[in-house]
């Protein structure tokens, strides 16, 4: 194995890791590429912040490379593309130059435009606000707050590098805007407005990856990812708490207490449609390829409709049991 070939394998691993892939996927893909190149002496250790790899050259000497991954930016299209490339490498002969060229193209893959990212923030907040039981007015307000949050999130990283501080300031912005809309009587339920807007910054992917790492016995990485996700949640709570306790005294209305008939079939259907739209919005934020948008919408709709159906059945069962408990 030459240094160039090891660099190619490391580059594939770095693209995966920096795009949010789990450790096991990164290690497996690197090993697949190495075996496809007829090398059996690759030793790679992958952590959530870097890759350490050692290989033997033809003359018996060992070469070692360390690859630092300082920042993770979720990009599922890059993960899909690298995995597809690794499968092609194992199925047919591809030259080193072709592999290197394709990896460079994947690494510099174009992102969704600023406009579409703002659309995603808006539809994500509005869609899930309506999905959890808000009125049309409140969901529109959540979408407006999501749009402003999108402008903030797309520009703040040019100024700040601390994710904790970015999250705290973002949650403060959401809470301020939500309270202002309620103060001027443009909305009715602060809870669903804030929850709808907050969904845009919920650390869902780190939570999922942490569970995946636990299932693969990568406990150190799993704990690191889980602590990072929990810290993000705490930062969100801190921002809202600061606004609610120091600047406003607006009552947080419990969910599902509005006058809407949230258990009717029509309401469940409409809310599930909005959940599907919100799921597609997050697909844009996570850089999912466009050909998967319809799949994301359908899966979001089906999963949310099943959730609402089971919740409705549970409520009916509890109502039927209550008289017996009273007796």
SSE inventory with pairings:
Blueprint: H1 3-18, H2 23-36, E1 43-47, E2 50-56, E3 62-68, H3 76-91, H4 96-107, H5 114-131, H6 136-156, H7 163-183, H8 190-198, H9 204-215, H10 219-247, H11 265-285, H12 293-326
Antiparallel strand pairs: 1-2, 2-3
Helix pairs in contact: 1-2, 1-4, 2-3, 3-4, 5-6, 5-8, 5-11, 6-7, 6-8, 7-8, 7-10, 9-10, 11-12
In words, what does this structure look like?
The chain has helices spanning 3-18, 23-36, 76-91, 96-107, 114-131, 136-156, 163-183, 190-198, 204-215, 219-247, 265-285, 293-326; strands spanning 43-47, 50-56, 62-68. It is mainly alpha-helical and 327 residues long. It folds into two domains: 3-107, no CATH class; 114-263, no CATH class. The chain has a three-stranded antiparallel beta sheet with strand order 1-2-3, with helices on one face. Helix 2 runs parallel beside helix 3. The termini are far apart.
Question: Keywords for this structure?
Answer:
327 residues, mainly alpha, 2 domains, 3-stranded antiparallel β-sheet, 68% helix, 6% strand, elongated, disordered C terminus
In short:
The protein has helices at 3-18, 23-36, 76-91, 96-107, 114-131, 136-156, 163-183, 190-198, 204-215, 219-247, 265-285, 293-326, and strands spanning 43-47, 50-56, 62-68. With 327 residues, the protein is mainly alpha-helical. The chain folds into two domains: 3-107, no CATH class; 114-263, no CATH class.
């Amino acid at each position: 194995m030459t240094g160039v070939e090891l660099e190619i394998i490391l580059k594939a691993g770095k693209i995966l890791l920096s795009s949010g892939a789990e450790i096991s996927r990164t290690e497996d893909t690197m090993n697949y590429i190495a075996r496809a190149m007829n090398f059996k002496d690759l030793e790679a250790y992958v952590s959530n912040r870097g890759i350490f790899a050692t290989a033997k050259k033809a003359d018996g000497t060992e070469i070692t490379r360390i690859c630092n991954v300082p920042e993770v930016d979720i990009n599922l299209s890059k993960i899909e593309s690298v995995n597809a490339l690794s499968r092609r490498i194992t199925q047919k002969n591809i030259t080193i130059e072709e592999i290197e060229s394709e990896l460079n193209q994947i690494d510099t893959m174009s992102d969704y435009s600023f406009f579409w990212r703002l659309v995603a923030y808006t539809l994500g907040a509005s869609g899930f606000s309506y999905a959890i039981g808000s009125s049309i007015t409140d969901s529109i307000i959540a979408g407006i707050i999501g749009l402003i949050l999108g402008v903030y999130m797309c520009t703040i990283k040019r100024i700040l590098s601390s994710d904790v501080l970015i999250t705290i300031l973002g949650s403060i912005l959401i809470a301020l805007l939500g309270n202002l809309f309620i103060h001027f009587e443009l909305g009715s339920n602060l809870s669903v407005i804030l929850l709808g807007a907050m969904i845009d910054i919920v650390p869902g992917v780190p939570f999922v990856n942490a569970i995946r790492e636990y299932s693969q016995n990568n406990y150190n990485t799993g704990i690191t990812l889980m602590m990072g996700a929990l810290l993000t949640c705490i930062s969100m709570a801190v921002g809202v708490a600061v606004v609610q306790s120091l600047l406003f005294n607006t009552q947080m209305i419990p969910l599902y207490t509005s006058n809407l008939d949230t258990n009717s079939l029509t309401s469940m259907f409409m809310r599930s449609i909005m959940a599907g739209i919100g799921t597609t919005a997050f697909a844009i934020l996570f850089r999912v390829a466009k050909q998967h948008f319809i799949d994301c919408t359908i899966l979001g709709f089906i999963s949310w409709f099943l959730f609402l159906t089971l919740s409705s059945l549970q409520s009916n069962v509890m109502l039927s049991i209550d008289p017996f408990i009273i007796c």
